[in-house]
Amino acid sequence: MPAETGRLVDQLALGLDSPICLTWELTYGCNLSCLHCLSSSGRRDPDELTTAQARTLIDEMADMSVFYVNVGGGEPTIRHDFYDLVGYAVDSKVGVKFSTNGYTMSAERARQVAAMDYVDVQISLDGVDPATNDALRGRGSYAAARRAMDNLASAGFADFKISVVVTAANVEQLDGFARLAAGYGATLRLTRLRPSGRGAQVWNRLHLDQSQQVRLYHWLVDNPGVLTGDSFFHLSALGEPLAGLNMCGAGRVVCLIDPVGDVYACPFVLHEDFKAGNVKDDGGLAVVWRDSPLLKALREPQSAGACSSCGSFDSCQGGCMAAKFFTGLPLDGPDPECVKGHGVSLLGDVEPGSIPSPGEGHSVPVVLRSPRRARVAV
Amino acid sequence: MQGHLTGAETAATAAFDPCLRYELAPDVALRAEPFGALAYNYANRRLTFLRSVTLRELVRALGGFDTAGDAVRSSVPAAEQPSYLRALANLANSGMIRAC
User: Fold this and answer.
1) Which residues of B touch A118 (CB under 8 A)?
2) Are A217 and A232 in contact (CB under 8 A)?
3) Which of B35, B47, B77 is facing A5, going by the closest CB pair?
4) Rounded distance, CA A55 to CA A57, Å?
5) CA of B100, closest CA in chain A: separation in Å?
6) Nearest Cα residue in chain B from A116
7) By the 8 A CB rule, do A102 and A76 touch?
8) Do B84 and B77 contact (CB within 8 A), yes or no?
9) Nearest by CB to B51, which of A4, A14, A17?
10) B53: enclosing H helix or E strand
11) Is the pLDDT of residue A373 over 50?
């Protein structure tokens, strides 16, 4: 009997019985209003899943043999039942990796977290100094994140993750982030800035230019211990592939559940066009994952479109679906940050009015900033 | 030909002994998938792809044999046995299976 049936990436592209990487945003509520928030979080949604509904969903994940769930938001820890749900998941053998801005990670909470099995913590930080970080994430957010890190380390939970969205504002600080993580015994995680949610408003100003992308690629090659969540596979066209699956996992190995139970193809496309169903529908998450027409379509062989004549397509697979969608580029063509420059030349032809809007989501009512501060912020 | 595993490709060492009985490690869960299986180690958070249905069934059956070598001989054609023994050695090295 043949033991091999082709490349793993081709097999995964056909989809899995359950997602490998399942993200669950527990709430749209957040005490911060980061300029690049993927989910445009701020206000809680009145229809957020109740504790009972959330527990039912965890039961479903356990039935589907979901090994772990990436919990985020919003700021998930502001839900009063947050640690109850984490405990329930862990007891159900669904490990939890949660992302937090750190504000609620008191010394006492840190000790509680350190005592739990199968729980990982990611602290979001977007600058190695308060000026860089707070310009994007809000005043005081650097200090809060560092306090959370100090508390976790003091509690003996050293291997937390420091999660950084790489932008033009912090791309020169990669070594500094690595030193910061090493100092704690923590692990650095870098992810890509996407034009999703409020990120659409800052993407033009904060995404990496070509020379910064090249430097990031080489830095990642030189620092293989840094996690990326497969974020930068579009950079693999620059040379040796980066670690990871190097493919768009949307609907194939990845999906997102939002706070009201809507299931989207990936965490970066919170848009009607990519809504696959709701976990409260008959059959729940399993049926949405297996039978949703949208997700099934994403598991069909995808056309390379304008990329089919490019020799690098095997390396980059045309890049990120969400990045294309929210910049108005065709999904079967180059990524807007295509390292061969094919995307940037197309961006100029996009009619501004034709770009899909991420909507204002649950953003808090607009906070007016003085023009001077706005310039500093970005 | 690539190996049977992806995600935990470490060199085989003397740690794996086909003359011992093996089983899935206690912190490891196996999930069947069309290409074979996913194995997840809750203790070290490692995810490994078992890239054949044969390997999946072999790992599931390991504990029922006196030795890992017996398990391989009973379920894998002779020509492929060395590669499956290497796959088991890698699984042992990465803590997915253990001698029992």
Assistant:
1) 42
2) yes
3) B35
4) 5
5) 23
6) B43
7) no
8) no
9) A4
10) helix B53-61
11) no
Residues of chain A positioned with their CB less than 8 A from the CB of B41 = none
* Rounded-to-integer distance, Cα B65 and Cα B54, Å: 16
Neighbour-count burial of A241, counting CB atoms closer than 10 A to its CB (0-12 exposed, 13-18 middle, 19+ buried): middle
- Which residues of chain A does B55 touch, with a Cβ-Cβ cutoff of 8 Å? 3
Please give the structure tokens belonging to residue A124. 């979001």
What is the predicted pLDDT for the residue at A33? Answer: 95
Span A1-43, pLDDT tens digits: 444 446 778 878 888 999 998 999 999 999 999 999 999 999 9
Identity at A244, one-letter amino acid code: G
| C-alpha–C-alpha distance, residues B48 and A329, integer Å | 35
Question: Tokens 């950079």 belong to which residue?
Answer: A235
Instruction: Tell me the per-residue pLDDT of A173-184, one tens digit each, with 9 for 90 and over.
Output: 999 999 999 999
Pair A44, A80: CB distance under 8 Å: no
* Beta strand pairing call for A187-192 and A161-166: parallel
- Write down the pLDDT at residue B15: 80
Model confidence, pTM:
0.91
Structure-token pair, residue B37: 């299986």
The nearest CA of chain B is from the CA of A6 a distance in Å of 9
Q: Are A206 and A245 in contact (CB under 8 A)?
A: no
CB A349 within 8 A of CB A306: no
Interface predicted TM-score (ipTM): 0.84
B90 Cβ contact list (under 8 Å, min separation 6):
B3, B5, B8, B9, B10, B12
Min Cα distance A288 → chain B (Å) is: 18
Is B50 within 8 Å of B4 (Cβ atoms)? Answer: yes
Residues of chain B positioned with their CB less than 8 A from the CB of A20: 38, 47
- State the pLDDT at residue A108: 98
Residue A110 backbone dihedrals phi, psi, to 5 degrees: -60, -40
Within 13 Å of residue A319, how many CA atoms lie on the same side as its CB?
Answer: 30
How many helical (H) and strand (E) elements, i.e. helices and strands, does chain B have? Answer: 3, 6
Spatial separation of the C-alpha atoms in residues B65 and B21, rounded to whole Å? 7
Q: Which residues of chain B have pLDDT under 70?
A: 1-14
Q: Please name the member of A1, A20, A95 whose beta carbon is closest to the beta carbon of B38.
A: A20
Judge: A95–B42 Cβ closer than 8 Å, yes or no.
Answer: yes
DSSP string, A210-234: HHHHHHHHHHHHH-TTSB-TTTTGG
CB atoms within 10 A of CB A227: 17
